[in-house]
Fold:
Amino acid sequence: MKQGDRVMLMLPNCVEYVLSYYAILRLGAIVVQVNPGYQREELSHMYSIAEPCLWIGESIHKEKVEPLKLQCLFVDEELSTGTNENLERVSLPEVTVNASEDVAVIQFTGGTTGIPKGAMLTHRNLMANVVQTFAFAHGTYERGEEVFLGVSPFYHVLGMSSVMNQGLYAGATIVTMRKWNVEQGLRLIETYERRTFQRFRRSILVF
Structure:
């Protein structure tokens, strides 16, 4: 992967999504966000537009991505077979990003009214959104003292901006949920709200 490359990121809300997202940006590459529920035809359409060099996802989607003839990284297989002994220390390349001009994310949108279009978001677009949202919510929560429950999908612009990017900017703890489930959601709120009252001054924020 090199600066300017596009990478399809197709994961549910999980730690691996967050790590992959920011690793791609750190390398100067472009995140192409993809709904894990998309099927072959939809993936083929996005591939033809974004022209990615790499796909990151789970092995349960192997059959969907095989027709793309694309290099794939299945995070669940890598995590299950990887060991500390075979991980090499890699020097990160020096990357110069023009925040106003360089695309950070290709966000497919408008799929409910037609064929999804790839909206190009620059680094400045993303940062401006985060700063504006934080300013708008001034007094609602404090940096470093919150817990966000990550329910909105990170591959959607709402989950990306209001939960993941905003959460990191706010120095919050992000509790990820792969899929909304009422019982699990209530358990997580009870667990982390209890911890919040012990460690912080504010209660959990649910998104």
Observations:
- Helices lie at 15-26, 40-50, 62-65, 75-81, 123-136, 157-169, 182-199.
- The radius of gyration is 18 Å.
